[in-house]
Amino acid sequence: MNSIEFRIPSLSDYEEVKSIWEDEETMADVGGIVSVDEVGYRKWYESMFVSGKDKNCYYLIFVENACTGEVSFHRFDPEKKTAELNIKVKYEFRGLGISRKALDHILSVFFDEWNGLEMFDTLWKENRNGIEVLKKYGFKEAGTDKDGNTVLKYFKY
Predict the structure, then answer these.
(1) Are 61 and 98 in contact (CB under 8 A)?
(2) How many CA atoms lie less than 13 Å away from 89 in the CB half-sphere?
(3) 22-34: b or e for each residue (b if 16 or more CB lie within 10 Å)?
(4) Is the predicted pLDDT of residue 19 greater than 90, yes or no?
(5) In terms of pTM, does the model score above 0.90?
(6) How far apart are CA 119 and CA 36, in angstroms?
(7) For a disulfide at 153, which of 23, 51, 93, 142, Cβ 3.0-4.6 Å?
(8) pLDDT tens-digit profile of 24-75?
(9) Hey, where are the domains in the chain?
(10) How much is the average pLDDT of 113-141?
(11) Cα(90)–Cα(145) distance, integer angstroms
(12) What is the pLDDT of residue 1?
């Protein structure tokens, strides 16, 4: 794999985000597609980068100028210094090491720039691939939520 780039999206990146969220194969492991029109994208963008800029951090992932996915964290708690991970690599780009590089990037931002202490992710219990990717990276199982979904955590130390 050649160069990988992490870009904070602009309002003009609607089609890139839509290409991730509305792809059935990519979204199958997380419960299905999320349809978004331009108005919905603008609302999401506002909540992510304007009103929520102190709680959220989001990047589109590009390899050789092709959008290959997204990586982010949400709901940063400044007292507990925790946040919830989100990572989606488009189905056709899986198995190329993109997830590892995306995790390296987002965890570096979280721990070094936001001074976070604990990143967690709650994965749909049927998302075996996602659970295994995070465990292989070093996330530890921390139990289940009320719906039986797997909770994984990654600590700075």
Answers:
(1) yes
(2) 17
(3) ebeebbebbeebe
(4) yes
(5) yes
(6) 27
(7) 142
(8) 999 998 888 999 899 999 999 999 999 889 999 999 999 999 999 999 999 9
(9) 4-120
(10) 95
(11) 26
(12) 59
The first and second tokens of residue 81, run together, are 């210094």
What's at 31, amino acid-wise?
G
> Residues in the chain, how many?
157
The CATH architecture of the domain made up of 4-120 is: 3-Layer(aba) Sandwich (3.40)
Q: Identify the pLDDT of residue 156.
A: 82
The pLDDT value given to residue 157: 72
